[in-house]
Amino acid sequence: MSAPERFGARLAKAISARGPLCAGIDPHPGLLEAWGLPVDASGLERFALGATEVLAAETAIVKPQSAFFEAFGAAGVAVLERVVALARDAGALVLLDVKRGDIGSTMAAYTAAYVAGGAAIAADAITVSPYLGFGSLEQCVATGREAGRGVFVLARTSNPEAHALQSAKLPDGRTVAQSVVDAAAALNAGAGPLGDVGVVAGATIAPGELDLTALNGPVLAPGFGAQGATVADLRAVFGDALLAKGVLPASSRDILRHGPDAAALRTAVRATRELLAGPQENGQ
Ligand SMILES: O=C(O)c1cc(=O)[nH]c(=O)n1[C@@H]1O[C@H](COP(=O)(O)O)[C@@H](O)[C@H]1O
Questions:
Q1: How far is the CA of 223 from the centre of ligand 1 (A)?
Q2: How far is the CA of 63 from the centre of ligand 1 (A)?
Q3: Which atom of ligand 1 is nearest to the CA of 65?
Q4: C-alpha closest to that of 208 among 238, 173, 176
């Protein structure tokens, strides 16, 4: 049997076809209410499946946030499984935002859950945390890679509290965040057109904080939209060359607030895609 196509290659193709926007599927209780839905598992189901049907038909990759599903217990996790399947049927890749990270032996169980061949909730990629040491993630990367799946490692996150920890300096002078990027780059060496190990770098961070030029992998850039970052910020933080090669601006609430009407949601996601197309085209 031939090896599955690698995640980085699949993502590069999806970006070429549909643009780089990553649409977040974050069923916040407040959004369920705004959509006129009950804040229970039935409301979650209608919100999440309705949003996925529209967003996964329009974008290269969707990002369901697991916590909003887990909050409803087993019924919520069952909805998450359906979201993953529905998104794939609609032609989008699925980045499951679970931000997992643990000692290697426990990380193996998260790997089996999400990115190994035959995973229970099989995503195309997951978000992972490097704070038990980057090495604790390497088996997950290797196993996911064999199954054609990837990871996005938290490097410099979009939230204001992140700065003190992630921008702390190591004895060699690099920031913690830069060391995460460099470790990801080492695992992506030689891969083309994009490696399977992405990093998370918020669109809200200061320009020049991170050197991503050697990453050779995708960058998830949340913070665009509801957290205040604009297209101009994306250009300032990442530069046109990187924006044209694997930066995925992620937006959740700013798009989802346009539901529940499917046509209005579709118009909103298309408008966001078009907004992003400017720097992409200019960057080539
Ligand atoms: O890993 C993430 O997705 C993530 C990393 C980060 O640095 N900042 C961040 O906001 N996120 C997630 O991205 C989404 C942002 O949602 P909005 O602010 O509504 O666009 C949420 O699901 C967050 O959990």
A1: 6
A2: 9
A3: 22
A4: 238
The helix or strand, by DSSP H or E, that contains position 93, with its residue range, turns out to be strand 93-100
Active site residues: 99
Nearest CA to ligand 1 atom 22: 65
Is the distance from the beta carbon of residue 252 to the nearest atom of ligand 1 less than 6 Å? yes
Return the amino acid letter for 228: G
How many CB atoms neighbour CB 176 within 10 A? 16
Amino acid identity at 152: F
ipTM here: 0.99
Does the CB atom of residue 266 touch ligand 1 within 6 A? no
Determine if ligand 1 sits within 6 Å of the CB of residue 204.
no
pLDDT attached to residue 284: 33
Question: Quick check: 99 and 154 in contact, CB under 8 A?
Answer: yes
Token pair, residue 238, equals: 């990442």
User: What is this structure's pTM?
Assistant: 0.97
Alpha-carbon distance of 84 to 119, in angstroms, equals 12
Hey, what CATH class is 7-282 in? alpha beta
Tokens describing residue 71: 């909050």
Instruction: Name the packing angle between helices 41-55 and 73-89 (round to 10°).
Output: 10
Tens of pLDDT, residue by residue over 224-249, are 999 999 999 999 999 999 999 899 99
